[in-house]
Design goal:
Elements (H helix, E strand, L loop, with lengths): L6 H11 L16 H10 L4 E6 L6 H10 L3 E3 L4 E3 L4 H6 L3 H4 E3 L10 H8 L12 H16 L3 H14 L4 E6 L19 H9 L4 H22 L14 E9 L4 H17 L3 E7 L5 H5 L1 H14 L4 E6 L15 H7 L5 E4 L9 H11 L2 E4 L1 H8 L8 H7 L3 E3 L4 H4 L3 H10 L5 H13 L32 H9 L1 H18 L3
Parallel strand pairs: 1-5, 5-6, 6-7, 7-8, 8-9, 9-10, 10-11
Antiparallel strand pairs: 2-3, 2-4
Helix pairs in contact: 1-2, 2-19, 3-7, 8-10, 10-11, 11-13, 21-22
Length: 507
């Protein structure tokens, strides 16, 4: 907060934000002072990021460094990180060395390839000429996948550090720490088997426990590296040392059903075995052929697993669609079925809300069930071309559906959480009171373990153990014990304390 200590900055901020000195519940927007708005929103404690793909959170610059350090090459025509050509391949095609060049080449002075690779691995300088924003966005993942799996610890460090640097202290990041091994389990199933028989066959194979153990070891190693790289516990500790990180197991809805089923088994078993893995989330483009064609069967599979693992959380990408991407009937039921059939507790994106059958009834159901929406304003814009009044964010808010802002893939989008708040103010017209509620929602509807700090979702008072307590002072023993036993309550207490300090600095 030191950057806001001068009287001049405070006066500028008050003009920019129209913030009354006695209250922070005033409109936040004044478009005439965008730089100051950015400064204030970056400083604002923002709770958590509930929709964050680990590989998509890493910037292209990091992937290029990984590639160079690992001795990978770059395909200068396809603009993809790849294995270097073997002597046999070069002998068969002598022109390869001119195309498949060492990744370190991109760092040479005056190299045009560096910028070209940045553009290819992200939305940097993207212009929809030869491909759409949708296609360019999703194509980036295949361009850096050769190195992403080998650098999970560094990727997690970057993700945690960058979010913490902009005052996001809780993260649920999406990735599969088994690196695709779950799909091999489909070989134990037979075509035409029932879901119950498939589950029995895979569980009796004896191959699930080793995959679970290896996946947990990946998380252990990544977390240890984060603490080391951020110098946690030392005088040089970096932002992120106090962050709380949890994981959502990444399912792939664009693969054949038997492979997806095998992934589900590993995901639900991993979440049952490791409290750090707090749920599951299916990924990949929702408009792809398999995602659309197999959607109904996928919902039945989720319903099956919900019966077997009722305590395991599920959030699903649903409604990341828009007219023109799929047939009209494809827009009518993805959010509804994810809630009603799959029993999803949160929805990612939910952009096609107004095209759902009985959207008003769906909203009422989401409110009654407490189903939250993870809104990713930047990616909805660059992938689907949906922003401003076309975006359903305000429809969700007006209906009382809990909303949390999220980054999705900030490395690919070349964006961050603060810009999600900027867009919420500038494009959606949200005021500070609403932003504050969204920040609280990001923890209240997180899958963090334990009970909430709050007595209700309206944030009108703390729960019994901490009722009457003030975050400005040390909690009484009873409240302290409650916070110690409940991760969710503890991170919410931290947010309230940080919000109080943030708001007090403007009085």
């Amino acid at each position: 907060m030191n950057s806001f200590s001068s009287r001049a900055w405070r006066r500028l901020a008050s003009l920019s934000l129209l913030v009354a000195t006695a209250s922070f519940a005033q409109p936040v927007l004044n478009s005439a002072n965008v730089p100051m708005l950015r400064q204030v929103l970056q400083a604002m404690p923002k709770g958590g990021d509930l929709h964050n793909h680990l590989s998509g959170s890493v910037y292209a610059e990091s992937y290029l460094r990984y590639a160079a350090n690992d001795g990978f090459c770059v395909d200068s025509l396809k603009l993809t990180i790849t294995q270097c050509a073997t002597p046999e391949q070069i002998a068969a095609n002598p022109a390869l060395p001119a195309v498949i060049v060492p990744a370190s080449t991109v760092f040479a002075p005056y190299s045009l390839l560096y910028g070209q690779m940045q553009d290819a691995l992200s939305m940097r300088q993207f212009r929809p000429v030869l491909e759409s924003g949708h296609d360019h966005f999703f194509n980036t993942f295949g361009k850096f996948s050769a190195v992403s799996k080998g650098h999970v610890p560094e990727m997690l460090t970057e993700d945690v550090w960058r979010l913490a640097s902009e005052n996001v202290d809780y993260l649920e990041t999406i990735f599969a720490p088994d690196f695709g091994k779950a799909r091999d389990l489909m070989k134990f199933t037979k075509p035409g088997e029932s879901l119950a028989d498939m589950h029995t066959a895979i569980m009796q194979s004896g191959q699930v426990p080793p995959i679970i153990s290896a996946a947990r070891a990946v998380i252990d190693g990544a977390e240890a590296r984060v603490k080391s790289d951020l110098h946690c516990g030392t005088p040089n500790a970096q932002p992120g040392c106090d962050s709380t990180v949890r994981y959502l197991y990444e399912l792939h809805r664009g693969v054949p059903l038997q492979q997806l089923f095998a992934e589900m088994i590993v995901g639900y078993e991993l979440a049952s075995a490791d409290p750090r893995v707090v749920g599951l989330n299916p990924v990949m483009p929702e408009d792809s052929y398999i995602s659309m064609h197999d959607f109904d069967d996928q919902m039945k599979m989720f319903a099956f697993f919900h019966q077997l693992y009722p305590k395991i959380h599920l959030t699903t990408h649903a409604g990341e669609l828009w007219p023109g991407f799929v047939e009209p009937e494809g827009l009518r039921h993805h959010i509804r079925d994810s809630v009603m059939i799959a029993s999803a507790e949160r929805i990612g994106h939910g952009v096609d809300l107004t095209y759902e059958d009985d959207a008003a009834g769906l909203l009422k159901t989401m409110v009654s069930r407490g189903v939250a929406v993870e809104v990713c304003l930047t990616s909805n814009d660059v992938i689907l071309g949906v922003s401003g009044k076309a975006h359903p964010l305000r429809d969700y808010l007006a209906a009382g559906v809990p909303v949390a802002l999220a980054t999705d893939d900030p490395g690919v989008s070349r964006d961050d959480m603060t810009n999600q708040y900027m867009r919420a103010v500038q494009d959606q017209g949200l005021d500070y009171a609403t932003l504050k509620r969204l920040a609280r929602n990001s923890l209240e509807y997180s899958f963090a373990e334990g009970q909430s700090l709050w007595a209700n979702h309206s944030f009108e008072g703390f729960a019994n153990a901490c009722a009457g307590e003030k975050v400005s002072s040390k909690p009484a023993d009873r409240c302290a014990a409650f916070l110690s036993a409940n991760t969710k309550a503890r991170i919410e207490w931290r947010l309230e304390g940080r919000l109080r300090e943030f708001e007090a600095s403007w009085k």
